[in-house]
Each structure stands twice: as C-alpha cells, then as structure tokens.
Design a protein that fits this description.
The chain is of the alpha/beta class. It is built from 13 helices and 13 strands. It folds into two domains: 128 residues, Enolase-like, N-terminal domain (Enolase-like, domain 1), CATH 3.30.390.10; 225 residues, Alpha-Beta Barrel (TIM Barrel), CATH 3.20.20.120. The protein is 35% helix and 21% strand. Helix 2 runs antiparallel to helix 3, helix 5 runs parallel beside helix 6 and helix 9 packs parallel to helix 11. The protein binds 2-succinylbenzoate (OSB) and magnesium ion.
Length: 372
C-alpha cells in the first residue's frame, strides 16, 4: 500500500475506578490512536504508552513526538509499505517500541481490512474464545480488595492478578487466597518494586500456590530474577524486561523466567509479539497476553493474539467495562454458559472493531493531527 496520511488522535478516557500499581495511581487513560489512511483503505492502531514514564521509559507525549518527527515521515517516504516491512523501515530509531507498535498495528489493520482477513487468522489463532483474567489494583484496605475480587469472580473471570508492592504483599495475597480457596488461579505483579534483599520475603509467597510472580525487579535486572527463580517454587514471569524475542530467549536461557507476559506494545509490535510466542512455544515456555488498559482498538488485537496456541494461561484481556463505562469501539463483553470468563475473538476484517467517531470527537483532548 501507499500511505497517504497518518492522523494522530488524542482522547481522554476516564477509568471506572482508579488503578493503583507499585508505580502510581491512574484515574484516566490518555489514549493516542494512530489512524493510517492509504490507497487501499484505513487502519487504526492504539499506542499503549502511559501518560507518564513510570511503567517504562515511554510516555504518550514522547510517543506522539517520535511518531510525528521520525516514524511517520519515514513511512510516508516509502513508495510501498506492508505491515511486514514497517519494523525494518523504523529500525533506524532506537527504542520507542510502543510508538512503533501503534504505527505497525494501524498499517496491519489497513492491510487486513483490504484483504478481508481478520487479525486472528493472520496471527495464526487456533481458538474462537480466549480465557480472561483481571488485574486488580492496590486497594485502600484488605476488605475493599476482597470486595473487588469477589465482584470479578461473580462476573466470571478465570484468573485474578493482584498488584503488589513492599508493604502490600503477603497480607493481601493471603486474604485473597483464603477467600478464593485453593483451586482458583491467582498471581501477583510487582512492576519492578522489589530489590535483591527482598528475595526471602518473596519466597514466602510460595505458601499461596500462585500461578506466577510477575516482574518483581527492575527491567534491566535479569540476574536478580534468575537468583529468585532459583530460590522459590512459584514460577517467575517477566513483563517489563522482555523487549523483544532475543531478550526473551536470553532471559529464558539464564533461568530468569519460566513464563512470559507478551505485550505487543512493549516488544515493538504484533509481529514481534508473534515471534516471542513462537520462540517460547519452541522451548516449552508458557505465555499469556498482557494488557495496558487498552480501549477496544488495542483490546481487539490483543484478543486475536491471545488466541494463538502457546497462550496457555488466561490473559489480562478483561471486558471493556473492567476499565471503561463506554468503550471507543463496540464493547468487549464476557461470554456466558460454557464461555463464562471468556472473550470471543473478533472475526471481521482487520481488528474487526469500528472506532466510534462520535466518541472520538466528544472525548478528544486536542485537534486531530494530520501528517502527510
Ligand atoms: O504490568 O501488566 C502490567 C497496566 C498498566 C501498565 C502495566 C500493567 C498493567 C496491568 C493491567 O496490570 C493490565 C490490563 O488489564 O490491561
Ligand atoms: Mg506487569
């Protein structure tokens, strides 16, 4: 295809409840959407960067800046673009994976819509429904946490993930495990909040039969994750550290991770995400689909990715209403009956969802920026 213009949209999406992690509290999402207009039609991609550089070094203003200054001009200069060529064209820019991923996703959406193929089919999806988990923020008290968790179980979620940090770990995890009973899937995510001297404390989590502990230490610190994995029975899972398929293989070989959280934004795009999946599958490492509080645009692509055969654990692929009263697209809703706790993989062309123009306008925080 030939890209005619790229429009950057900025939208404020209030969350149904504030989301607290070890790195901060978020009350709204500052969403950057990339709209590619080409000779074969349009496509949309969502940038998952947060408003502030707290989860990782990327943040939404930085992503918008690198898109308008470097990434979009590089694609506009190409006479012919395919989703498969985007990463190579953008490789001259170091890092900025979330910005690159959003642009690649928009090109892929346009390409697949033109071909009439769904993202699931393109990625190699092998199921029509995916198992859903929910990520539960740090709460004001253990009672509030138990209420929130009970609500999600009632809604059908198949796995609970608790955000933890020093001072909010053993007690809340113990309380939730008691409430859930021994069989429900329970895991924790520390978003890099611990240090090597916390290994003995983290080892106490073994008592709670967790599915995994996600990213206890800083992104760069593969060695301490390997040291923890050697000390505990609970599987160690990496999120922030896994920047691409090569890093994933290295971390696996060093014994730092035995499960991987795959987020397309973090690894620079859905194509690289599929590569991480394929590699993990080849070495028998389970993967699951992470989330970044996506609107329906990013959620649709995540659900398609989560339908690949190596995604053997429920993902952070929650229903739209877990975060938003109204979604930017048709909402994702959990199934019922045998599909309780699952989301259906969209089967329409591209992402299979449509951006609601009325909401895009109503919630816009700036004028759409047209780059050509
Ligand atoms: O570490 O997985 C994470 C949200 C924002 C940034 C990082 C993370 C998260 C979540 C929520 O845990 C995932 C979701 O439900 O979208
Ligand atoms: Mg995480």
């Amino acid at each position: 295809m030939r890209i005619e213009q790229v429009v950057l949209h900025r939208v404020a999406m209030p969350l149904v409840r504030p989301f607290e992690t070890s790195f901060g509290t978020q009350a709204a999402r500052d969403v950057l959407l990339v709209h590619v207009r080409s000779d074969v039609g349009d496509g949309w991609g969502e940038c998952v960067a947060g408003a502030d550089p707290l989860y990782s070094s990327e943040y939404v203003e930085g992503a918008a800046h690198v898109l308008r200054t470097y990434l979009v001009p590089a694609l506009l200069a190409q006479p012919e673009v395919t989703a498969e060529s985007v990463a190579e064209t953008l490789a001259f820019v170091a890092g900025h994976r979330m910005a690159k991923a959003a642009l690649e996703a928009a090109v892929l959406d346009a390409q697949l819509r033109a071909e009439g193929m769904s993202m699931g089919t393109y990625f190699g999806a092998e199921r029509e429904w995916v198992d859903c988990g929910v990520s539960v923020g740090i709460a004001g008290s253990i009672d509030e946490l138990l209420d929130e968790v009970a609500g999600y179980i009632e809604e059908g979620y198949r796995r609970i993930k608790l955000k933890v940090k020093p001072g909010w770990d053993l007690l809340p995890v113990n309380a939730v495990r008691e409430e859930l009973g021994p069989d429900r899937l329970l895991q924790v995510d520390a978003n890099s909040a611990y240090r090597a001297h916390d290994i003995p404390l983290l080892a106490e989590l073994d008592a709670f039969r967790l599915v995994l502990i996600e990213q206890p230490f800083p992104e760069e610190d593969i060695a301490t994750h390997a040291a923890l994995a050697a000390e505990i029975e609970t599987p160690v899972c990496l999120d922030e550290s896994i920047l691409d398929a090569d890093v994933a293989l290295d971390a696996i070989e060093r014994g730092a991770t035995s499960v991987i959280n795959i987020k397309a934004g973090r690894v620079g795009g859905y194509l690289e995400a599929v590569r991480v999946h394929d590699l993990c599958r080849a070495v028998d490492v389970s993967v699951w689909c992470g989330g970044m509080l996506e609107t329906g645009v990013g959620r649709a692509a995540n659900v398609a990715l989560a339908a690949l055969p190596g995604f053997t654990l429920p993902g952070d692929t929650s229903a739209s209403r877990r975060y938003f009263a109204d979604d930017l697209t048709e909402p994702f809703e959990l199934g019922t009956g045998e599909h309780r706790g699952q989301l259906r993989v969209p089967d329409g062309p591209g992402t299979g969802v449509t951006v609601r123009d009325d909401l895009l306008r109503a919630w816009a925080t700036r004028e759409p920026e047209v780059l050509r």
